[in-house]
Specification:
Elements lengths: L2 H8 L17 H8 L9 H14 L4 H6 L5 E8 L4 H8 L5 E2 L2 E6 L2 E7 L5 E8 L2 H20 L3
Antiparallel strand pairs: 1-5, 2-3, 3-4, 4-5
Length: 155
């Protein structure tokens, strides 16, 4: 979830991501970090288990205690059949605060969503997250309705 960036900032860290449909080289650092030999846990479940166990041991926590410390976030994914391209959406609705190399970011209150194109060009995917599942679903409805209105008025 996008909230991982907020959590990382609280601990003086940074999340590196690479995107499935990047339109620039803004994710190059994420790709380089993922390929590093010391990031074996990214590709190896047993390696990830070892990292988690080392953390639990060094912080003197049980697994349930550590899980209780993770913020509860609800995520919703929704496919929207749409003829509107991501390029069109960025031209019409983008500003410096809501553009990601991987899509268009939409925020409202404590809810965020990113709109990404389908690789086959048949529509868009909305990935929403919130501390309440109802809010994540509602933001998807709102974006879907806005896309339909945009298509209906002929752009």
């Amino acid at each position: 979830p996008l909230c991982a960036e907020d959590l990382a900032k609280n601990y003086g860290s940074q999340v590196f991501r690479y995107y499935s449909s990047s339109d620039d080289s803004g994710d190059e650092m994420g790709r380089l970090v993922a390929q590093r030999a010391d990031n074996l846990f990214v590709r190896d479940a047993l390696g990830l288990i070892c990292v988690i166990l080392r953390y639990l041991s060094s912080s003197n926590q049980t697994f349930p205690q550590a899980v209780d410390n993770i913020p509860k976030v609800s995520t919703v994914q929704r496919f929207v059949s749409s003829k509107v391209s991501l390029h069109e959406l960025k031209q019409k609705f983008a500003d410096e605060n809501n553009v990601s190399p991987d899509g268009l970011l939409y925020t409202k209150d404590d809810t965020r969503a990113i709109i990404r194109p389908q690789k086959n060009g048949q529509g868009l995917m909305i990935f929403a997250e919130s501390f309440k599942s109802e809010s994540a679903s509602a933001i998807c409805d709102e974006i879907q309705d806005a896309l339909k209105r945009y298509e209906d008025i002929g752009k």
